[in-house]
Amino acid sequence: MLTIPFKNKGSFLYAEIYEFIKQEITDGNLKYGEKLPSKRSLASHLAVSVNTVDTAYSQLVAEGYLEAIPKRGYFVCQIATYLMKDANRIQDKRATIKKTEVVTIDFSPNAIDQRIFPYDAFRKIFKSTFNEDDNNLLNKPDIQGELELRKALVDLLYHSRGVRCHEEQIIIGSGTDHLLQILGLLWGRNKPVILENPVYLKAYHIFEKMGNPVISIDIDEKGIQIEPLKNYSNVAIYVTPSHQFPLGMSMPIDRRIRLLNFANQEEGNYIIEDDYDSEFRYNEKPLPSLQSIDNSGRVIYMGTFSKSIAPSFRISYMVLPEELLKAYQETAEAISSPVSSLEQKMIAAFIASGFFEKHVNKMRKVYKGKRIVLMNALKNLGSQVKITGENAGHHLLVQLDNGLTEEEMYHRALARGIRVYPVSPYFIHGLPKHYKSMVLLGYGSLTDEQIHNGIGILKKAWDL
Amino acid sequence: MLTIPFKNKGSFLYAEIYEFIKQEITDGNLKYGEKLPSKRSLASHLAVSVNTVDTAYSQLVAEGYLEAIPKRGYFVCQIATYLMKDANRIQDKRATIKKTEVVTIDFSPNAIDQRIFPYDAFRKIFKSTFNEDDNNLLNKPDIQGELELRKALVDLLYHSRGVRCHEEQIIIGSGTDHLLQILGLLWGRNKPVILENPVYLKAYHIFEKMGNPVISIDIDEKGIQIEPLKNYSNVAIYVTPSHQFPLGMSMPIDRRIRLLNFANQEEGNYIIEDDYDSEFRYNEKPLPSLQSIDNSGRVIYMGTFSKSIAPSFRISYMVLPEELLKAYQETAEAISSPVSSLEQKMIAAFIASGFFEKHVNKMRKVYKGKRIVLMNALKNLGSQVKITGENAGHHLLVQLDNGLTEEEMYHRALARGIRVYPVSPYFIHGLPKHYKSMVLLGYGSLTDEQIHNGIGILKKAWDL
Description:
The first copy, chain A, is of the alpha/beta class. The first copy, chain A, has helices at 13-26, 39-46, 50-63, 119-129, 147-161, 176-187, 201-210, 253-263, 290-293, 322-332, 341-352, 355-379, 406-415, 448-461, and strands at residues 66-69, 73-76, 105-106, 170-173, 193-197, 214-220, 223-224, 236-239, 270-274, 299-304, 316-319, 385-388, 395-400, 418-419, 421-422, 438-442. Residues 86-98 of chain A have low confidence and may be disordered.
């Protein structure tokens, strides 16, 4: 009979019985086929209730240590020996934590001004959205995105960007990366993808990892070049016409039409228009989207709330041409929506209530002011500094002509607590000569004072 | 000189000038190289301010219709002709909307009981989490997931599932599908993936679409069979040991050890343990996870809050063996986190505050009650009904032995407003004979009365 050295005559007696028997089996003291004492006799032997033994035995049966054979009793199951081979394999392979330099002023091109975030509006929106009466609030989100958000986007995109679509064409995603992955799955690995060079590098990595042939075409001062496209057919072309990332120019109408004409030559050609920060253009109205002048269903329009609300909300959207909807629906069956229903509903309400438009207008004003401060500060750096890409978005580019390399610009700034963003990592095949000594300066998150001080420090750091 | 037929002498004069000139260029009335009137003379001609003309000209320059040459004036740019080929291509290809049948009682295996959702706790959590003082609230989420959620999970998974890990091993995802995609990207297309058959079908579709060779191995009453595995090496094996989906059995300890031993034979072998609803086991304690008995870093543990909180929150997690962290970090660079910071923080606070444990305990009690109601109702159906997979989760399986086919079971139920879920779609290569006439009945979202009435109707529908 089993003798169990109880540690604790409390309510977890059954757990001790369970653990003891499990260990006896694992250690080989109780062997395959061996019969255990009946519940009644073990209970009496251990002076516990039959119920306690029953709970322990049931757990052991559930886990496969014991088998209960009706009218015969409990028997030890056959259990393989755990072969722990090569135990040394587990070492602390934990990635070493990167040292972080002390950065006091960060000219990040991706950051927003958190000081103007409409916290109170969001609190109101949460209150009205997080509502027991909404039967869909707790359900799995619609695979294309919640209908109220898609409807709000139909209107918003039409009025702000001239995008013409109906809600069935809209797919809500959790960021540009996610939407590009959907397109990759939709098209399959045989579709070549053409990227601008330089480019939003994650687009490059995503398509490369998904196995699509990736072709990069250098941009000139008007954006992606059209002539080299003519070597390809049945392709997807990823472009940022409103505000080339990272170089900041916008694509003039002539180039836009040529690009559409190229796409229009063949059924299989598509343009992915990533309109990631089109809300922020300061001296003119935002340029109309490519999608708005496409009459042949060649343009896939894409945007995000990362810049216009906050990067912490992972919500983006894409407008598919009708022609792609069927392929999308077939692909979509494979994958659940990654975007929380609650946040979709909150953003929908934020747009529908007019808060969004007000907020974007406010941000545009704030960023316009910061941009002026930055432009003025840069004037003090003298004639060895060339500024480009300044008409839109949250960043511009600064190129030096005093012999400093890009690397030196970066490290000298960092040594003084300033982070600037070299342009070379955005080039797929290394930096062409005429882009040398160029860095991005973002101003979204900085105060006027930080911008002013930062540029003052850069002046010294860069020997200007 | 241009004569512009103003419609509206309001503040949008510049827009009318802009539109008019744009149209003249598009129509070919203003030709490439043609010089426009100076701002001053056009302003005087139209009796508007020079500023108004300046705004219109600037917009046209920004869009690439005009070029401004310093000291010479404004000239029409060369603009390609838009070739609108095959305009008929755009038809209404909108997918036809599926008719929805009238379902009054839905035995969905995926639905939860929304009536016990802790709305008030979430309101409190939102209030404390959505806080101006949290500097990370608006930032792009950490690529692996917010640290507070990963820390909360380290404790939660250790105490509830025996999972041993540190926070660097945890990846927060937006659903099982998303985490499987990350694994696919991390391994690349050459890694074969072995699935249980039947299986959570999205797992099959994801790996298939990503190009991984997908092998399915039939399960027996203990889960995936080990013998057929021996034909493969350097593989990932996706299993649901706590509660096989969809058949509902749990894998006994002997099979678990054999599976680990197989995985342990080679460096490249991994087991993906999807522990999707392990919180809900009614007669015994939840079985310890595979990860908890793996000493060789072969198990990737995966879970979700879909069942334990709500499917609308798209939050899941996986624990990677140390050995995979480096490959993960290289892959992760390609892809931003799709999971909103706010919701990660809310779930972290929900766990840390103890609300989560309370809620799960409450749900377990509620589902246990529903399960008893369902089991009792099913007893009335007589001996032609076999019940399996009833020990865990939110669903069980019912098999009929009265000659009705699975299809008949489905359609006869639907004709009476009851939705049941045929098991055959979960089989990759068609339904094996011994699973015929089997459907899933989920009870998560139903009231006791609905369960009782629903089974009553099924009794008639199925001639029992």
